[in-house]
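User: Could you go from structure to sequence for me? I need the amino acid at each position, not a summary. C-alpha cells:
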C-alpha cells in the first residue's frame, strides 16, 4: 500500500541528511522502513542508503517467511554496510512488513512504530535508551531524556553483534493507520499527537512545512 505521507527531510539545523525512508512490495505484503544515521556525515548517509537498498534486494528475492528469516535479511544488509564502509557505522531503524492480518516489526534504537488511535498514538516499540525508565518514573524531565538518548551503544553498529535488534509480530491496526518515524519527528511532535485519527493526520500534514524549516534534527515519517 502506498503511504499517505512519506517524507525524509534535513530539518532546519543539520547540513547532512542521514535519515532514510522507503517502502516496497514483498511477497504477501508490503515493507516500510525508516532509518536514522548517527552523526550527520555523508559517509553515514551513504551507509544507511546501502543498508536499505540491500534489504530491499534481499526481501524481494525471497519470502519473509518468519521472524528468523527477517532477522537474517537484516543481518545480511548490515554486513553489506560493514564490507563497504568498515566498522563504527551506527544507525537506528524501524521496519514494518505488513502482511495479511499481522505486521512483522524489526526495531533498534529510537526510531519508532505506532498506530494512530482514537486517543493519539499507541507506540509499539520501546526506545533503546537506558534512561527511559528514569523518564517514565519522573526522575528526569523530558528535555533531559531527549538530551541523553543519543547513545551509540544502543544502536545498530557495524562490527558489533546485532543483539539489540528486536523482531516481533503484532496484529494489523484496525483503522489501517500505521506510523513509522525517526526521533527527529517524534521528539518534536509526540506531545501534540493526542487527538483522534483524523485530527492527528491533519496535524501531521499541517506541521510538516514548519518541521522542514525549523526541526533541530533530520526527520523521517511514513504514515500508511
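Assistant: Here is the amino acid at each position, in order:
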Amino acid at each position: 500500500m502506498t503511504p499517505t505521507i512519506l517524507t525524509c527531510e534535513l530539518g532546519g539545523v543539520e547540513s547532512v541528511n542521514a535519515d532514510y525512508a522507503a517502502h516496497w512490495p514483498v511477497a504477501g505484503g508490503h515493507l516500510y522502513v525508516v532509518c536514522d544515521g548517527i552523526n550527520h556525515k555523508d559517509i553515514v548517509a551513504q551507509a544507511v542508503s546501502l543498508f536499505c537498498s540491500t534489504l530491499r534486494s534481499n526481501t524481494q528475492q525471497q519470502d519473509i517467511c518468519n521472524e528468523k528469516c527477517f532477522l537474517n535479511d537484516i543481518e545480511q544488509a548490515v554486513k553489506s554496510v560493514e564490507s563497504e564502509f568498515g566498522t563504527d557505522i551506527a544507525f537506528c531503524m524501524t521496519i514494518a512488513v505488513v502482511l495479511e492480518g499481522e505486521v512483522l516489526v524489526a526495531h533498534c534504537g529510537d526510531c519508532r512504530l505506532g498506530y494512530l488511535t482514537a486517543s493519539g498514538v499507541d507506540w509499539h516499540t520501546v526506545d533503546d535508551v537506558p534512561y527511559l525508565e528514569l523518564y517514565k518514573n519522573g526522575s528526569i524531565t523530558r528535555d533531559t531524556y531527549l538530551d541523553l538518548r543519543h547513545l551509540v551503544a544502543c544502536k545498530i553498529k557495524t562490527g558489533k553483534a546485532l543483539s539489540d535488534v528486536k523482531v516481533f509480530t503484532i496484529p494489523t491496526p484496525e483503522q489501517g493507520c500505521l506510523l513509522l518515524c525517526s526521533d527527529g519527528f517524534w521528539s518534536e511532535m509526540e506531545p501534540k499527537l493526542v487527538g483522534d485519527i483524523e485530527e492527528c493526520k491533519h496535524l501531521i500534514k499541517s506541521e510538516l512545512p514548519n518541521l522542514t524549516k525549523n526541526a533541530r534534527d533530520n526527520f523521517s515519517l511514513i504514515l500508511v
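One structural detail worth keeping in mind: Residues 22 and 203 are 22 Å apart (CA to CA).
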